[in-house]
Amino acid sequence: MTDLATNTPAQSGNTDATVNGIHMSTLKDTVHAIEQEPDLGQCKFRARNTWLGGNHNCTTVTGFYGARQEIAHKQQYELHADEPPILAGKDEGANPVEHLLNALAACVTTSMVAHAAVRGIHIEALESELEGDIDLRGFLGLANDVPKGFTEIRVKFRVKADVDNMERLKRLTLYSPVFNTITQGANVEIQVEPK
Amino acid sequence: MTDLATNTPAQSGNTDATVNGIHMSTLKDTVHAIEQEPDLGQCKFRARNTWLGGNHNCTTVTGFYGARQEIAHKQQYELHADEPPILAGKDEGANPVEHLLNALAACVTTSMVAHAAVRGIHIEALESELEGDIDLRGFLGLANDVPKGFTEIRVKFRVKADVDNMERLKRLTLYSPVFNTITQGANVEIQVEPK
Asked: How far apart, in whole angstroms, are the C-alpha atoms of residue B55 and residue B163?
């Protein structure tokens, strides 16, 4: 696989182009800056969650650390999670595992689109369906040998693009940070302190 | 650890109680049904994503399969993802890795609250802050030895509850399906077909 620093429109002198809706020179500026100074790539992403009672809670996302600075989003994003009635909730939002599927869907889509853009692969339309398997006996503590998380997640993309590029587009999803977090795993450290 | 089927208010005859805002008899009904017929615990959660151009895409969540039936949410949930300008987006939503932190925050919160409820641990207030580390060189393909996903995620809870229960409440987060998906990993199968 090549990367975002090669095979780009910039190399053909077309730095102002927008490919797949992405302004290539902006993306290239970020890539080149990180190439020059690798520590600019170190990011800390953040979320803050408040419990609203029962299974309902709300996350706010306001900004992150990257390129050696704090960067604010243009507005605060609020994301509600709840459970459906069968899981003793009031259904005031998608549930946490559905939010995980959203994160994965968004990330593999963005990874495909951005990496396709720098390779000059034009995408006209793109949609995906995701489905993941969970056996609730794990979460409920009813069987110790049953995994508590997703065991298998299936992502089915339908892409309007040159049919010869389907296999290549599939490979580009492997750059996705959320895909890699789920398939490779990450350490999660939890602290609980009195309020 | 005990599980959701033991040490519950139901065992003390208090089946109509609400603990931590969760209606205990509803939760117990689900647990007992799955205890009787384990395959009722098999769930398929789903999401559908549509690319809106550039780094902007939208996930819709409408329902899932569980308890041997299709279950619709009371409304369709829409979740927008985008990237900030520094990552060549228009900042129309939290970005995919922030959505992943949201999923984790929501899930460890719900897991703590529900498992605390069945153990009779009352929680008055609960909030959390999450921060996760990503080196963008992985996603950008600038260094093959740099992980593409989160390497470390820190979750800091502040809980208004009996201070003697802090360690116990921390352990209850280990039931979380999203926590387990991230720390244990899951298979993700990707298909790309022409539209």
From this structure: 44
ipTM, two decimals, is 0.94
CB atoms near residue A148 (< 10 Å): 25
Q: How far apart are CA A102 and CA B159, in angstroms?
A: 28
Considering CB atoms only, which of B79, B153, B177 is closest to A150? B177
Nearest chain A residue to B109 by CA: give it. A51
**Which SS3 state, helix, strand or coil, does residue A16 take?**
coil
Interface contact flag, A182 B161, Cβ < 8 Å: no
Tell if the CB–CB gap between A87 and B30 is shorter than 8 Å.
yes
Two structure tokens written together for B18: 């609400």
CA gap A8, B141 in Å, rounded:
13
- The model's pLDDT over B146-184, given as tens digits with 9 standing for 90+, comes to 999 999 999 999 999 999 999 999 999 999 999 999 999
φ/ψ region of A67 (left if φ > 0, alpha if ψ in -120 to 50, else beta) reads: left
Three-class DSSP category at A85: helix
Helix (H, G, I), strand (E, B) or coil at B72: strand
Q: What residues contact residue B145 under an 8 Å CB cut-off, 6+ apart?
A: none
Mark yes or no for CB contact A81/B47 under 8 Å: no
pTM of this prediction? Answer: 0.94
Radius of gyration (C-alpha) of chain B in whole angstroms: 20
